[in-house]
Here is the input.
Amino acid sequence: MPEISISKTASAGSVESSDCLVTVTPADSIEIDYSGANKKIFEKRTEAMTRAILAEYSVTAGRVHIQDQGAIEITLRARIETAVERALEARLP
Amino acid sequence: MKKHAGTENRPCRSMLYIPGDSPGMIQHSPAFGADSILLDLEDAIAPSEKDAARKMVSTFLDSFDFGSLIVTVRVNPADSEYFENDLKEIVPRTPDAVRLPKCNEISDVRAADCLIAEIENDNGIPVGTVKLHAMLETALGIENAFSIAKASPRVAALTIGGQDLTADMGVQKTLEGWELFYARSRVVMAARASGVSAFDTVWTDINDIEGLAKESKQIAELGFTGKAAIHPGQIETIHEAFRPSPKELARAQRVVREAEIALHSGKGVVSVAGRMVDAPVIARAEHLIALSRLYDYEEDGGGLA
Here is the structure.
């Protein structure tokens, strides 16, 4: 498995209700930064989910910032994947 | 993969367009009351967001429970750079159908059909699972309506795109809609002749409910099986246009009842009130009864026996 670092900034999503804005930026290790009205309830869940998605892309370094506007898990996953794919775009075949 | 809840052969009166990158609307879609939704990757999505919309729709198709909603995805046109990726991501998630814009000739449908079959094969999905709705939105497409409908068994519906069509004809879309009269009739006839559904174009003025009601009634009477909507507020009006009258329903029930009696007593010919009734009439009566189940008929005494 290749180890991939996020080397460019990319974002996906919006700040509309039921959506989220995900921004990935270069970092030395995996860092997850979650903000949202229900941070207490959803921070851990979202962090675990984000780590799992990063692992699917073999990403071992990068910072993921999530501004959650009340997104369901399906939406969070779609936005995180889009942001990661955009950041990795130059690498993909 | 979308869970199918027996959506085949269900009446599909309304199809609500939802932009593919609007998660809020997608997650609430089962609550809008539409018979079907059209998750849009085409016109509603800016070029910079095509990837995001494709991902959003794919992820919803993977895990969201759409209940009994018929789910169709409108992909980008075959001549766009997005087309192949749209199909590659969407088809494996088996929506009920893919809506293909700008079908002008048989070859457009055949090319999409081949590509979809290839993707179905690669993913172990029976070939023909994902239906195709051919969108006719040019003069050429309208003139080729019948051959497009017959191009592949995958084609399950013809649908007319009024905006692009009137532009192609070089005319304005009017409130009365005479400029679309021929095109609509042609599409309905081609659809009936080939046994597929016929869906009408959208009514774009969301504030003009009266205009929508008039147009919906008109296209229902022309023979369309459903109409697209661009706002949840249009659904009820569209459904109302397809409501069978209590008189029609009573007649349909009688036809079906008499047909059953005739069948049980071994008679080949059915007659209702002294008039002979044949198979297409019985089929239409059955369809009408299925349709009436979508409406509340208890209160006005027209309920089912």
The beta strands of chain B are 14-19, 36-40, 70-74, 97-100, 131-136, 155-160, 197-200, 226-229, 270-272, 275-277. Confidence is low (pLDDT under 50) at residues 299-305 of chain B.
